[in-house]
Amino acid sequence: MITIKSLNKSFNGKQVLTDISVAFEPGKTNLIIGRSGSGKTVLLKSIVGLHDIESGEIWYDDVLFNKLDFNAKKEIRKEIGMLFQGSALFDSLTVDQNVRFPLDMFTDKTEEEKKDRVNFCLQRVNIINANNLFPSELSGGMKKRVAIARAICLNPKYLFCDEPNSGLDPITAILIDELIKELTEEYNMTTIVNTHDMNSVMQIGEKIVFISEGLKCWEGNKDDVLDSDCTTLNDFVFANALAKQLKASL
Amino acid sequence: MLKFLTQFGRYFLLLKKVFSRPEKPSVYYKQTMHELVYLGLNSIGIITVISFFMGAVITLQTAYNTENPIYPTYLIGLGCRDSIILEFSSTVAALILAGKVGSNIASEIGTMRVTEQIDALEIMGVNSASYLILPKIIATLLFNPVLTLLSICVGIFGGWIAGTMAGVITSEDFIYGIQYAFIPYYITYSLIKTLFFAFIITSVSAFQGYFVEGGSLEVGRASTKAVVFSSVLILLFNVILTQLLLS
Question: What are the DSSP calls for A228-242, one per residue?
């Protein structure tokens, strides 16, 4: 469980997030949605501690994360997996070495155990016979899947995904969404996904938080999102022509 | 002035992070070995070529500028030896390495920053500054003295080849010259300078790369800044160290 209380964040005097309070539940795929530039990525990076916040509280279960020192934060971070928008695979390492990296760094497993774990994680995300390829040799969808494999190889309690299906075709995007949902349920992780893709919202949005101009405007689930009375949310949800037709037919 | 002090402070805070206790020494050892090859062994070629030709030019310049019957010709060898040991193999070679290794480090770390690879390390609980920078510092501190010694040998060899082939000095005179009035402390002085310069090149370049904000354009700028700042600092410390070590 991750709980955010009255979070405020600004850059050079410009307020980016204002008084955000929300709770993200374990075993569920929690979505943060909003337009580009609304503050989704800043919120996600603030939650994981990549940005220092001005005020507010970030709780990981019963630990007040934002008040911890560097070393204490490191301990929590070992339980975090994160999928970045651009995958953030290490360019100089192969697929195998990328997934193995957290195991090398934080475990005392034998070579055989590490090999088994790497292969298990890669198979889990449907990456086969690509262990020796470098990130530059992979497609966008494969990079995302390898990044997911790296994120889950230490069995994290918390999974963060920043725009996991940006730049992917609709079919691959759905596969990635389904994979995230499956893994969340399988490992009972607290998963937070940043997205502006309405397909993802309807596919995996068990809990949805809508952010607009740094403010939390709406909170609910995929069943409520289509008939909300929040104007900014409706403008976002029914922005494209297909969605407008759908709304007209409702 | 405020900006300079801010950067100065950030540099030392980064160094504090770099020299904190490694998460897993075995991983850092592997990384250091990799950097020894990448930053050290891969620089042998350029150092060899440049040292050879610099030694040749120093010999010829010394010969043509001291064409006087009252100067014994073996002084050409002595001049070549001392120029190479005292300045070329430590300072000029460091400036060359600042261009090659410094830009390499800044662009590698800068690219990792803008593509969120450093964020990925931080999220995993890895001290990214230490993991990325410490092995590079250790590798250059270990290997740059080797490059300096290699440069001295190749430079003097280049001087001997050029001098004898151009007919400005006999082989016997050159060899006598490079042995004449030899002060072993000059080698120590050269190696001490090399260690300082290696640290400057690596830490300043890594600093420029680590704090890049933006995209590929900013990575390019950081790479240029790394070379410029490293070079200026090398020249500044050359003066300071010369005064301290030879006075």
Answer: ---HHHHHHHT-SHH
Q: What is the CATH number of the domain that holds A5?
A: 3.40.50.300
- Contact by Cβ (8 Å): B239, B222: no
Interface probe, candidates A106, A136, A144, A155, chain B, greatest B C-beta count within 10 A:
A106
Specify the range with the lowest mean pLDDT, choosing from A214-228, B10-24, B40-54, B193-207: A214-228
- Asked whether residue A92 falls in the same domain as residue A136, the answer is yes
Tokens 């530059």 identify what position?
A136
| ipTM entry | 0.86
Q: Which residue segment(s) compose the domain that A228 sits in?
A: 1-79+162-250
Chain A positions in Cβ-Cβ contact with residue B127 (cut-off 8 Å): 74
User: How many independent structural domains does chain A possess?
Assistant: 2
CB contacts < 8 A (A, B): 55
pTM for the full model? 0.88
Q: What is the DSSP letter of A94?
A: -
Whether residue B235 is predicted with pLDDT greater than 70 in this model: the reply is yes
A249 with A170, same domain: the answer is yes
Mean pLDDT of chain A: 88
**pLDDT attached to residue B244:** 95
User: Do residues A180 and A249 share a domain?
Assistant: yes
CA distance B212 to B214: 7
Whether A238 and A175 share a structural domain? yes
Q: What is the DSSP pairing of strand A207-212 with strand A190-195?
A: unpaired
Condensed to tens digits (0 to 9), the pLDDT of residues A139-158 reads 988 999 999 999 999 989 99
Tell me the C-alpha distance between A141 and A145, whole Å.
6
